[in-house]
Each structure stands twice: as structure tokens, then as C-alpha cells.
Automatic annotation (TrEMBL):
Residues 458-594 form the C2 domain. Keywords: Hydrolase, Lipid degradation, Lipid metabolism, Transducer. The lineage of its organism: Eukaryota, Fungi, Dikarya, Ascomycota, Pezizomycotina. The keyword Glycosyltransferase does not apply. Gene3D superfamilies: C2 domain, Phosphatidylinositol (PI) phosphodiesterase. It catalyses: a 1,2-diacyl-sn-glycero-3-phospho-(1D-myo-inositol-4,5-bisphosphate) + H2O = 1D-myo-inositol 1,4,5-trisphosphate + a 1,2-diacyl-sn-glycerol + H(+). It comes from the Eukaryota. Its EC number is 3.1.4.11. It is an enzyme of class 3 (hydrolase). This is Phosphoinositide phospholipase C. The keyword Ligase does not apply.
Length: 613
């Protein structure tokens, strides 16, 4: 196979390969050039067939096995070249996105870590989330720069190398006592000495924002450390832009600190602030934003554009003065509130200006460079109310969706239905490897985190006057997978012996309906009978589906899950997910991941048949 040395096939799988070869071989147990070409053309659907040794026209069994262990025989084919075109406006792409990126587990008690950001960025995620709250006092880097002075002027003797650590109760008490003594007991010289000491400590201690899931028991991390991690790992696997979605719960003072930290650490990666009325209405392309960090944050109009009132809510409820937006006639006036987001932070949002969603009819729905964020429940509700308006909006503007708050176990929504509605940023819990994450991996495999939407899902491209194509819909006349044999199934932790496993295979075809349909289409599911052991032979069982209409192959997914039929919880032992348009026909190998989503030596030998019109 492609990423490991030539495998040693077990007897059932090797026997299956021999049977395939013998079925097409001549009396001399070899394939002539004509037989070889017929196999690759009619069975494998490879055009042209894989390169062969020009001096040897015949193919023997050993060379057939060599082909079957090469990348050419894998079920996953290359992504269409058109999907790697990065010249369209930003809203024309699906973007690999994460929800509550800082968490390593569930939504209530798990740890927040910078390692979580590192993992998703190295796996290709391009939209990450940071929930920011007011932080406590911490030592800054100045504590190491002025360590000698600080030690001399305090009773602490372990100041060295503590930058970033919290200020302890003992030291805070000593500083407060010192201030009281200075004010009430010291003479003028003593007060001057104490003032110098306090000035040293003020340089060494600052209150910086922290990152955590608010109102839960999740552990916190430093906002500064998160920014450093993004800088270090954000562009190692892809130079396409990163979108940082900020959920801000900080005081104005801490928001100023956030801006200072981002401008310091992300220098050269941030876009310069631009007023909305000075910008082009169409966003730049990912190619034009390479190595850039786009900040998604609540939009607050500049003070001079807010009309008579100087205040405006963070959700921009006061529309007067926003470029081209006015409240609907007869709409009752709302009492303005002070903005929760300060102007200097809001201005960092250039092409990703967050606006709270109320309805598709709200005036901000036509504001250039805005982005709505909707929970999965609100996505379904809004789509039910106005599917056409919802889909048309997402061809022109950005939208982000995220899992419902009730998913405290960090499970994931079905992203395919959200992509089918044109949503660019479908945020998932990357720490949970379930069917949702399998689909995300399948959509973005080899893409750098950006996939161009299919025809009919995109708005206009600057300089292109071609008529807008229709949303594609094809009929899947026949789709079948012949399951021959499986090798090297990962052994579940509670299976002491390989023969104790009782595996069976399920195949789930997720084919979402047309984006203007409001009735959800349930997945198609088939399964094999139960076998025994980690090298089961499934006797070429056929799992098939026929006559399915309205299929968009680029947004349809086939999920394979190997289950363990022993009495108990029926766990997923291994799994794989492939995009329907990238599944090659013929005899192929499918690679399996274990139950935690890690790469394994497990493989399935299948024969795939697919006919579409």
C-alpha cells in the first residue's frame, strides 16, 4: 500500500487475490497484453491503465499483487483538479472548521490546552475558535528581565523563570501590605524607595485574558499562549488563510490587551483595518490571503456612523449609519446599549465581520463582508422557513454553523447537510472521531483546508460573465460494494484474543437532498453477516443501493464501519469514509482507522461498482 511497506497477506485475502487473477488469466496463468488492458479498462475503470514494463507484455500473479499493493489500487482517487482552484472569492469555498478548539474532551469538565490547537492545525483545520475571558494576574516576561532588582526589593527568592505563571496569594498579600506601609508609616525617602519597588513589580505583573469554556469546570489556558501556538503551527501544513473566530467575554481593558497581544504575536499576518465603505464588495480569494490570519469578531460601526446615539449594541441593532443599511419602516426604535466589543478590537475583523443572526430578512444580511453564526438547530429552523433565501445568501456571504449546546459529550452534527445548504464554515468537535469528523476528513482530504464549492453553489467571480450554472443533480443508478476479505482489524482493548472478535461491516451512504428541499433524506444503510477473528473472509457479500436521484457526488459520503458483534455495547472497531466522487471502481483496497481515528494496518478488499447519469 502507499504509506507502508509491502504487506504480508494472510491466507483468506491472498486466496481472494488469486481467484481474481485466475478469473482473467489464460491457460498459462498469465495475462496477455489484451487481457490486462481489458481488466483495467472494463473492471478497474483506469484510463489509461497503470504503466507496465514495455519489454514484458504479459502480467503474472506476482506483478498483479505488486499492482494491488500500490497507490493505484486504493479506493480513494485524487480530488478533482477544479476543487484546488484558489482564485474565487472567499465565500466560494468550504473551509475545514473547528468548534471550541481549545477543549480536549467534553464540554463541561475537560482540559483546555494549546496542544489542541496544535493538533487541529497540523491536521489541516483553517477556522479555529477561541473563547476569551478576563484573566487573573500573571508574571510577564519582565519578571525575568528585572529578576535581580525584584529579588532585592522583595522577600521572594524564587523569581527566576516564572513568566506566564499566576501571581500567588502570598506575593499579592505582601504587595498590598507594602502599599499600606508606604502610605501610612514610611518617611519621604522610604516612600520613594517603595515607589520604585512598586514600579518594578508593575512591569513584571499584568492581567492577561484567558481561554476556557465559560461557566463550566473546564481548565483555562493563556490567550497569549494560544496566539503563540497559532503563529508557530498555523502555516506548517498549509499557507491558506486561517480564520480565528473570537467569542469575547472580556472587559474593555482586557480587550485592549487582546489586541496588543494579537498585533505583537501575529505581526505580518493580520490584515490592516479598513472601513467598510472603502472596500470592494466582493471578498478576495484564498490565494490573495495566503499566510494571513483573519479575525472573526463582532462588528461595531465606527462612532461617527452610528447616527445621533454614540452607543450601539454589539449585535448592531442600531443600523443607522451602517453603509447602505437602514431599519425597516415602521420598525419600533430600540434602546441603544453600549457596545460590548471595543472599536479597536472590532476593526480587526476585515472580511469576517461578525453579526448576530435574527432572520434572513434583517438588514445586515446584505452588509458586505459580514458573517452569521448559527447553531445547528437554528440552521434547520431557518432553512425550513426559507430554503431559497438561505441558499442564495450563502452563495454571496459567509456563514458559520456549530453544534448544539446540548452536545455536552462533544459529539458532532452531520456536516454534509450544512455543506449542502452552502454553509462555508461547519464547525466540528475535532477531539471526537465520529461520523461527522469522518465526513470532514473525507471532504478536505489533500485540500489544504479549502475546497471550492460545486457549480451552482457559488456567487459570481470578478471578471467572469458566464451564466450562473444550476445546482448539479445526478441519478445514482447503481452503487454496490462487494466485500471480499478484511485483514489486520485493530483489536479492541477488551478483546484478549483475536479470535474472540465477531466483526461485521456496515456501509452507510449519506446523500443529502437538493438544497432547496426541506425534507431531510435519511442515510442508506446496509450490513454484512457476522464473521470471526481479525482476518475475516466475507465471501464477496454485496452491499448495494439503487435508483437514488438528486445526488451531488462531491457532497455525498460512504462510511464503512467494522462493528464487534460480541455481547455488549457493539463498539466501532475500525472505520473509513470516502467521498462518493473520489471512489474508484473495480477491485480496490480501503484503508481502515481504529476506533479512535488513528491509522491502522487494517484493510478491506472490495469490488466497487458505480453507475451515474
Amino acid at each position: 500500500m502507499s504509506d507502508c511497506s509491502s504487506p504480508q497477506f494472510d491466507a483468506p485475502l491472498l486466496a481472494r487475490l488469486q481467484a481474481i487473477f485466475d478469473r482473467h488469466a489464460g491457460p498459462d496463468s498469465r495475462w496477455s497484453k489484451e487481457q490486462t488492458e481489458a481488466f483495467f479498462h472494463h473492471i478497474q475503470g483506469d484510463h489509461p491503465p497503470p504503466q507496465q514494463n514495455e519489454t514484458d507484455e504479459d502480467l503474472d500473479f506476482d506483478r498483479f499483487v505488486l499492482y494491488m499493493t500500490s497507490p493505484a489500487a486504493e479506493a480513494l482517487g485524487p480530488a478533482p483538479a477544479a476543487q484546488s482552484d484558489m482564485s474565487w472569492p472567499l465565500n466560494s469555498y468550504f473551509v475545514s472548521s473547528s468548534h471550541n478548539t481549545y477543549l480536549e474532551g467534553n464540554q463541561l469538565t475537560s482540559d483546555s490546552t494549546t496542544e489542541a490547537y496544535k493538533k487541529v492545525l497540523l491536521r489541516g483545520c483553517r477556522c479555529i475558535e477561541i473563547d476569551v475571558w478576563d484573566g487573573g494576574e500573571r508574571f510577564t516576561s519582565a519578571v525575568n528581565e528585572h529578576a535581580d532588582q525584584l529579588v532585592e526589593s522583595s522577600t521572594e527568592n524564587d523569581i527566576k523563570e516564572v513568566a506566564g505563571e499566576k501571581v500567588g496569594f502570598r506575593l499579592r498579600t505582601l504587595m498590598k501590605v507594602g502599599g499600606w506601609v508606604s502610605d501610612n508609616l514610611l518617611n519621604e525617602k522610604g516612600k520613594r524607595d517603595m515607589a520604585e519597588i512598586q514600579q518594578n513589580w508593575s512591569r513584571a505583573i499584568a492581567s492577561e485574558p484567558r481561554v476556557l469554556h465559560g461557566h463550566t469546570l473546564t481548565k483555562e489556558i493563556s490567550f497569549r499562549d494560544v496566539c503563540k501556538t497559532i503563529k508557530e503551527y498555523g502555516f506548517q501544513t498549509s499557507d491558506l488563510p486561517i480564520i480565528v473566530s473570537l467569542e469575547v467575554h472580556c472587559s474593555p481593558e482586557q480587550q485592549e490587551m487582546m489586541v496588543a497581544i494579537m498585533e505583537e504575536i501575529w505581526e505580518g499576518h493580520l490584515l490592516p483595518p479598513v472601513e467598510l465603505d472603502a472596500m470592494e464588495k466582493i471578498a478576495p480569494s484564498p490565494a490573495e490571503l495566503r499566510n494571513k490570519i483573519l479575525v472573526k469578531v463582532k462588528y461595531v460601526p465606527p462612532k461617527e456612523k452610528r447616527g445621533e446615539d454614540d452607543d450601539v449594541t454589539e449585535d448592531t441593532e442600531s443600523l443607522e449609519g451602517i453603509e447602505g443599511l437602514q431599519p425597516e419602516k415602521g420598525a419600533p426604535a430600540k434602546e441603544a446599549k453600549p457596545p460590548k466589543i471595543i472599536g479597536m478590537l472590532s476593526r480587526l475583523g476585515v472580511f469576517t465581520r461578525g453579526v448576530s443572526f435574527k432572520a434572513m430578512e434583517q438588514a445586515e444580511a446584505k452588509m458586505p463582508h459580514h458573517i452569521f453564526s448559527l447553531s445547528e438547530g437554528m440552521v434547520d429552523k431557518t432553512h425550513q422557513q426559507s430554503a431559497w433565501r438561505f441558499f442564495q445568501h450563502n452563495k454571496q456571504y459567509l456563514m458559520r454553523s456549530y453544534p448544539a449546546g446540548t452536545r455536552v459529550d462533544s459529539s458532532n452534527l452531520d456536516p454534509a447537510g450544512h455543506w449542502r445548504k452552502g454553509i462555508q464554515f461547519v464547525a466540528l468537535n475535532w477531539q471526537t472521531w465520529d461520523r461527522g469528523m469522518m465526513m470532514n476528513d473525507a471532504l478536505f482530504d489533500g485540500s489544504g483546508g479549502y475546497v471550492l464549492k460545486p457549480d451552482g453553489y457559488r456567487g459570481p467571480k470578478p471578471g467572469v460573465s458566464a451564466p450562473e450554472p444550476e445546482v448539479p443533480g445526478r441519478d445514482l443508478n447503481h452503487f454496490s460494494v462487494h466485500v471480499l476479505a478484511v485483514q489486520n482489524l485493530p483489536l479492541p482493548p477488551d478483546a484478549r484474543e483475536s479470535n474472540s472478535m465477531r466483526p461485521y461491516l456496515t456501509m452507510t451512504l449519506s446523500v443529502e437532498p437538493h438544497p432547496l428541499e426541506t425534507v431531510k433524506r435519511e442515510p442508506y444503510v446496509a450490513r454484512t453477516k457476522t464473521e470471526q477473528g481479525v482476518h475475516p473472509d466475507f465471501s464477496q457479500e454485496v452491499l448495494s443501493f439503487d435508483d437514488i436521484d438528486g445526488v451531488t457526488p462531491e457532497l455525498s459520503f460512504v462510511v464503512f464501519q467494522v462493528m464487534d458483534d460480541r455481547p455488549g455495547i457493539d463498539p466501532v472497531t475500525a472505520a473509513a469514509c470516502l467521498r462518493l466522487d473520489r471512489m474508484k471502481t473495480g477491485y480496490r483496497f480501503i484503508r481502515l482507522r481504529d476506533g479512535q481515528g488513528q491509522a491502522s494496518d487494517g484493510i478491506i478488499l472490495v469490488k466497487i461498482e458505480k453507475r451515474m447519469t
